[in-house]
Amino acid sequence: MSGVWGKNIKLSIFGESHGRAIGITIDGLEPGILLDIDAIKAEMDRRAPGRSPLASARKESDTFEILSGYFNDRTTGTPLCAMIRNTDEHSKDYSNLKTLMRPGHADYTGNIRYNGFNDYRGGGSFSGRITAPLVFAGAIAKQILASKGIVIGSHIISIEKIHESSFEDIHLTNEVLKKLSKDAFPVIKKEIGDKMQELILQVKKDLDSVGGIVETAILNLPVGIGSPFFDSVESHLSQLIFSIPATKGIEFGKGFDITELKGSEANDEFYIENDIIKTSSNNNGGILGGITSGMPLVFRTAIKPTASISRSQHTIDIKKRENSELIIKGRHDPCIVPRAIPVIEASAAIAILDLILDIKTS
Q1: Which of 189, 157, 204 is nearest to 302 (CA)?
Q2: Is 7 a residue whose pLDDT tops 90?
Q3: DSSP 62-108
């Protein structure tokens, strides 16, 4: 398993969904960073289950314990390690999944990859539960970026076929992103958000699930972060975003829709205002040649419908080598999109911080 990521900020995650604990070690943090523990807790609460009828009923407080790299309220410069105990695991709900492969899950591929020794309870190492340590690390990265004036925020731009306005359609400010970060179900238009939530609750009654798209913006990035090709902002961000379970796509700026424009329409023309260089549009999402342009960095993440549904599904018994039927027990989100938002923002913060430190070390 590749549980290590990063060049300047190195992350190492550990644990399984129903193991004793999950956690993360962060290497590369400068000494003397004052950590706002309450702000970290607030980010963890955004991701935690059991707080809404739209989410899984599993109740985890996601209380973290910092084991090293932190002393007298500040980072020490040595690896910072944090652990989160699992307290509400119902492993008996997964006893039949040792041989029955859940459709849409990593049970089959994990079984083959790890020769049947993988922990299948609650998805084990493949579970979205493992994103909690990632949010912890991202909360720290967010604080460091905020000290540089960089703000990250997101909203739900679609759930199934219900769509709302894009960031392109509004005047995007720090205040808008900060307000969205405080909303349990962040949308620009409340009435559309209400329709999305009604759909999720209906799908829950139908023992089914839905997916959606999250739009994220990063404001006040300096020009010149990133590199062409392998260390582009897009590739660096995408690697972490695709590490989030249920992510099936990412696009920057206009994304795939830019293919419908002519070059004269797609190009972001430059102009100078108060000695600041800007572009009249932002079709490239604040990135040119893999490097930040100073415009808002905007990207969208596609999240698939939650794979665990309580309807009867066709599957296989991998031990008996025969076709079978499966009804998945346990507690599952009818839509994982709202809880994926803090994970997406955490991943973005970590990736951007790693790239910023690239400049300092070059």
Answers
A1: 157
A2: yes
A3: --EEEEESEETTEE-SSPEEEEEE-----GGGGGGGGTBPPTTSSHH
Contact 307, 334 (CB under 8 A): no
Domain ranges of the chain: 4-361
Instruction: Please enumerate in sequence order all residues whose Cβ is within 8 A of that of 38, keeping only pairs 6 or more positions apart, or say none.
Output: none
Residues in the chain: 362
CATH superfamily ID and name for 4-361: Chorismate synthase AroC (3.60.150.10)
Does residue 360 carry a pLDDT above 80? no
CB 327 within 8 A of CB 315: no
> Which of 95-104, 106-115, 244-253 bottoms out in mean pLDDT, i.e. has the lowest?
95-104
CA dist list (Å): 11 to 32, 144, 352: 19, 16, 14
**Per-residue tokens: 179:** 């307000």
Query: Can you tell me the distance from the alpha carbon of 201 to that of 334, in angstroms, rounded to the nearest whole number?
Result: 8
For residue 47, give both structure tokens: 């991701």
Dist. CA 237–CA 253, nearest whole Å: 14
Q: Give the H or E element holding residue 353.
A: helix 337-361
At residue 119, the pLDDT reads 82
Structural contact between residues 35 and 73, judged by C-beta atoms closer than 8 angstroms: yes
Question: pTM of the full predicted structure?
Answer: 0.93
